[in-house]
Amino acid sequence: MTFDFRILAIILAFTAVVFAPTAEAQVRMGNGELNVPATMVAESQRVKPGQNVTIAFVMEPKPTWHGYWENPGDAGIGMSFDWTLPAGVTAGKAQFQVPDRLLISGIMNYVYKGDYAVLVNLTLSDRVQPGPLPISVKSEWLSCTDEICVPEQDEMSITLQVVGRDAEIVLDKRFDGFRAALPRPLGSEASFAITDDLFRLSIPLPAGVALDTPYFFIHNDGIVDYAAPQKFSRDGDRLILETQARGDGLDMISGVLKIGDDMGLSFTATRGEVAMTGVPLRAEDGPKDQNLASLLFLALGGAIVGGLLLNLMPCVFPILSLKAISLAKAGGNEAVVRRDALAYTAGVVLVATSLGAILLGLRASGAAVGWAFQLQDPRIIFVLLALVTAIGFNLAGMFELPNVNFGNKLAQKDGAAGSFWTGALAAFVATPCTGPFMAAALGATIILPPVAALVIFAGLGVGLALPFLLIAFVPAIRSRLPKPGPWLDGFRKAMAVPMFLTSIGLIWLLGRQIGTDALGLSLIFLLLVALILWWFGGAQMKGSSRGALTSAAMVAAILGGIIALPGEAAMDSQKLAGNSAATLPSEPFSEARLSELRASDQPVFAYFTADWCITCKANEAAAIQRTETADAFAAAQVAVLMGDWTRPDPAISQFLEKHGRAGVPLYLYYAPGQEPVILPQILTVATLTELVGKAA
To answer: pTM for the whole thing?
Structure first.
């Protein structure tokens, strides 16, 4: 008969609780303090209504002592929190860093052997008033050595200050390190199976990602034998785990795959068919540095190629017309062309990297956002609309810019400064477009460390600027540039057409977000912008200067348009989650509805779109909203779920991250009882109809 170590674990845990007062008294009499002391700190002492603030419990175990992960394993107790919060403040789920293993006499513990931090996001409602904000919590945890365990607790409090929306917020830089040790969301959903007392888990992971002694920490208790060995094998782009099962009964589990020191990937897994296939993985199959280097190299290459292909997208072409005018003016002048190309590249790379940095910062603060997040804000769209309209009128010859000091002058100036701001504008308006290679590259920024992720965003900018760098530094291409001449004025006026087409597209997008009534009011302010420019151009023709007055009037008109925009509640009411009158009707996407359809063995096509995503709209017109597709889906009884990301939606943002996407589009097909198929970003009718035919 073999001894069941689970019985010993229960006895030890019971003994720790029964003798807790005596043990705690003995330890405290000896040193007067906790063995794993906790310090409660806030990322910022000042917080604004309607925003989040992250609280960290910094745990500093004494030598030989350790604390426990949220699932402690065979023995131990995770950390608990009993909050006392003011009205309007809510606490989120605790976020634990990637743990270590501790095996003692056949009992597996999931622990922290050194200093660690547990993070909790506090959310303030808009109703919280400025002033002191007292936060209190009673927390309990278990502290252990290899020989003794002591339940410990502490009552901690901190007083934050609620400030106005315009107040400056200073963040504690230590939180960057705390978050770096948190597991990162894995792109796609895994699957698991339990047969013949064996637990198998299939994890989607690119074959090029090397691993440093992988280990799976499961959140759900009673499913696997914690102390049993974990065997891994590689099967293409999947990592297969096999270990001893302990129980059954769940259709979904979650956990963390540790891939290196303080590095892990969190994911969920649903029940399915999993076979132990592939090549067995050895512990020495790759160090962490090689893992990161391989992923960074592949993602950087995808970002550069994806940025290059963005030049073919309709959302970028109008801005490229400005650069084309600059090249036409320069003719074949080598020095001028090279100077302008480098300045243009600097503007593109700076804005692409800055947008990436803001995106990473928002994610780190707990916000669920993705690529092109800025175009989910109608205020930014209105400013961009005014800017593009002004540039269009300038190209058409309504006015000239030497004496006007507002935004679009920057993109129209001659020389390096004009090229820089043209590049900046090109990068800003390129974000709605998503082309081939971009999805995987931007999705990798979810997993990579922040510095490596910024390199990916910079690579996207380099790819976008690459054609002009080639023109500048390849003489054979540069020699074909036309010489300046009278034709240039006509060319410039022709380039106003794509600018005005862009304005029309932005007007349509703004209307989709704020509704037709509010759009009418916004267009009044846009008309005011046009009248101011017309008035200024008339003065120029008479030889007078109204630059300062025009600048002030323009600022007032744009600010008026921003103020006239409706509030969040009114805009949310305009969001169209589904359209029953469409050629291919759909339901609003939700994970609950997806699970319900899959449980009923119904095939599901889920697609994620946004009104500002040109690629999304092109796919809908060319492939999704087509009679052939609708007929094929109806014949196969395919349910269609549509996720509308035009306005911010944290649930959709989190779902996109789970599938390795930083933005839209994303197309998924769920055949009954099978894992989802991620479809290409450029769809055709044949792609969809053949997929349904194969499934049938």
So the answer is: 0.45
